[in-house]
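Quick start: what a row looks like.
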Amino acid sequence: MALAQVFEAFAGPDAPVEFVAYDGSRAGAGDSPVRITVRSPVAVSYLAQAPGALGLARAYVSGHLDVEGDMYTALARMAKAQATDIDLAARYRLFRELGGPRTLIPRLAPPPQEVDVSRRWLTTGRRHSKGRDANAISHHYDVSNQFYEWVLGPSMAYTCACYPAPDSTLEEAQEYKFDLVARKLGLRSGMRLLDVGCGWGGMVMHAAREYGVRALGVTLSEQQAAWGRQTIEKAGLSGLAEIRHLDYRDVPEGDFDAVSSIGLTEHVGIRQLPGYFEFLRSKLRPEGRLLNHCITRPDNSGPTARKNGFINRYVFPDGELEAPGYLVSLMHDHGFEVRHEENLREHYAMTLAAWCANLDAHWKEAVAEVGQGTARVWRLYMAGSRLGFDRNQIQLHQVLGVKLTADGHSGMPLRPNWETRPSAWQGTAAGNGTAAGNGTAAHDAALALVPGIPCW
């Protein structure tokens, strides 16, 4: 049986993509902007040995299956394809005609980019132990700072941006995100900020440069820490900003005015979340605020992680997603009063679209830097994630909590006052990175004049 016939059996005869196989057969729409090409029998074996998304990912990452054209368009069109309902007997018949047991033996080794989830505990320890978390973070973030610069752009912000307007650039949206976090936290000159899971230091530098805040960021990625320290020094912010290669659980200082957690919660794990919120609360002074920004699942049904899924094996080992309501309840149960929550789901889809475009624009350089397999992992993962946010399969929530005083005072405004950026704000503070910069002074003066009226 020709491979094109198998494709039609699963995707339907009117699938909105073009399909081409090494046996010369074709199916689908010949005028489609995307083409799926099966280049060798190895792709068929991968699909037979791991049916579904994992087998497809292995075939693509290894180069035995190609997707020509825009990856997001390909995934979106395939998701809409109306597959024929195939019963078990028909599936077995297709399997037999494709080669039967010969496609299962010998067992193919996965591409080297895949984590062996069945043996991780032997080499890296208990799930979410400090050593294993460090290993998981290194797997994803210690790829290449140059690669990340191409994908993320000048901001080096690897978290959901917040687009103030539909036509805002990625850089404008990332700056707006950092400033939105700062405004929700009520940052002022002279305050102390702890940023856990700080990445390359975007929030730390923004808080120091624009608000005159003494900011400490911690990350488990050596490459992130090295890049951030160098950038802080070049920006003249060393007097205010610091990045340490450190587990957030090992931060010795306390009595911070604010804590930001932007993209860390996904790595913590459901069993560790109570301790995570208790620890962050312990680092805050009374009336101190926590802004927790993380990817979530839409509801509490289903598992927090799919052990054998593509994301767990290739992208975020041991990553877990919780529902927003569960996170809000945990924050309340472990010392915080939640004062505000919002979903930035559409913003993350837009952020990923920009990252995908950046990767495509630097594809040849990216392949030369990290190899074809790793570049393909990123192309597939980012396009698939964008589709997930578009289809409400995953979300991005910001939750603002406050540590009350012993007698119940929050120090919060009567109404949210962070939605409208003060018009008197001048942007960047003086280049010396001190609290006396013109931008910071104008920002603090303007905040005092902003009425406590939200824009929604």
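That is the whole record. Residues 145-447 form a domain with the Rossmann fold fold (CATH 3.40.50.150). Residues 423-456 have pLDDT under 50 and may be disordered.
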